[in-house]
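Hey L., structure's done. Input below.
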Amino acid sequence: DLDSAEALDPRNVDTNVLRASISIARQEPAEALRLLNKSLARDPDHFTARYRRAMVLKSLDRWPEAFQDLLQLRRAGYRIEKNLFQEVQRRANESSTDGPREDVSL
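Output:
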């Protein structure tokens, strides 16, 4: 079980990512976000944690933060689906009070 896995290796990022996935399935975005933030604090380059956090942020209409996560993944060389990336970028620009965000062509 997950508690046993975490007890064996408390630094294991995948345990929290899995717990976050369960929270997402239970429609508990705040808990999922907490777990994903914890995972990314331990491993900022963890693809699954960052991608899932972007999707949770998107579901919470936190567009600029979701865009920054997707942009970071893209800059690290990961392929992000074009329509998803453009939608999040557009909504981040629309919701920003600081003016438009960085324009990133695909």
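The chain is about 70% helix and 0% strand. The chain has a mean pLDDT of 88.

-- N.
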